[in-house]
Amino acid sequence: MVARAALNGVRGVIAATIAYRVAERMEKRDVRSKIRTARTEIDRPAPERRARAGAALAETVAMAGARVPYYRDLFASIGFDPAKIARDPAYLGDLPYLTKDIIREQGDRLLREDREGLRIHVAKTGGSTGPSAHIHYDQEAADWSSAITQECRRRVGNTHWRSELHFASKFPEVFPFRDRLREAMKCFAMNRDNIFFATFSAEELESIWRQIRRLHPHLVHSHPSTMDQLAAHVERTRGSQKAFAIFESSGELLEDRQRERIARALRCVVVDRYGLAEAGVVAYQLDPARAEKRFLEFFAWPEIMPGAADGLGDAGADEQAGELVITPLKNSLMPLLRYRTGDNAVLARRADGLFISRMVGRIHDVITLNGTPMPTHYIQDVLDRVGGVREFQIEMRAGRPVFRIVPEEGADPASVATRIASWWGDAVAVEFIALSDLKLVGARQKFRHLVETEQSGAEPA
Description:
Number of helices: 13
Strand content: 25-35%
Helix content: 25-40%
Strand order of the largest sheet: 4-3-5-6-7-8-9-13-12-11-10
Largest sheet: 11 strands, mixed
Number of strands: 21
Oligomer: single chain
Structural class: alpha/beta
């Protein structure tokens, strides 16, 4: 372990001083300058940050009205003057909310018209707050997203020379050499290793823990449900054991019981963050001793939509409770004005800034396939690789999982079903449905990938 720690340190120095700069130049990116800017912005006094964020909001709204067909038509139809935002950001409330449904319906009309020649990145939203949509980033926005993550990690003690470990889904096929080489170079430049996994079986959890012990990273990043399963395994087999310093939770709601068990069994500091494919990381627990997540308003402008405070409890005098609404401020390719995230939060105004003090949001489930527990985020990764799947839900019928698939437009259902069978054989059944047939659950009619057993209906193939 000592030798591995020394190796990580040497790799970290090379990564921070040489490899990352070379990779940035080769990929034609500019992240380091944005890290410096983010550092300055985070340290500004809260009133100054708020004023600067308001000015950036006004620029974003004005640009959207001038260059994006959807917003140009919307502003004209409601008589909205974007210049008002520069006088008072509260005028943003004159605009209707943006939803995933609108994003899917409008398609390219949400992209700026003068995008010719721009380098474009496409991200698919998770399905835990509603059926997925595709979000387009320009290079500037992609670089900003990376810069925010790196600066936040630095502030909790994970500087570039300290190693990271990320969890990723394991696939059986061998990727082309060029792709593997590029990933290896990226990992070296980031001072990062990956662990690939597919299930929560005891054997795989033991293998994961042994790999972590061998790699001896400083920070580990994964879904909290994954790390909670690993913590439970370590608690059952060892009581507690230390292998890394920081766990960074991402992609799901971090529950208090998970935080406590992970910290106790794995003897690590637990930090939480809130991000989404539509923007990147917009809130981060910058102080590990303070559970609240600092909202980065210079990166995304926050609002709370009232009337949707289920599960949040009472809000204090300086708090707002409801659905979190954001306007990202760094993506000029696809501006999202007043985007409803689908997550409930308490947004607190403190002397030192805005904080998410409580949240009710995304949760991934665990199902059993062939006797092996498996997270639904792994199922989602597999179906993304299968292709042709716009959205999915899983129902258990007579002990057998049924994959209810919404196919992409133009996809061949038979081909999709064959590819799914190549992964799981007859352990799963497949049926194809329309987007409107997806089931919503709970009082707020939230989307979940795993739904209650359907008692009637035709048996799928």
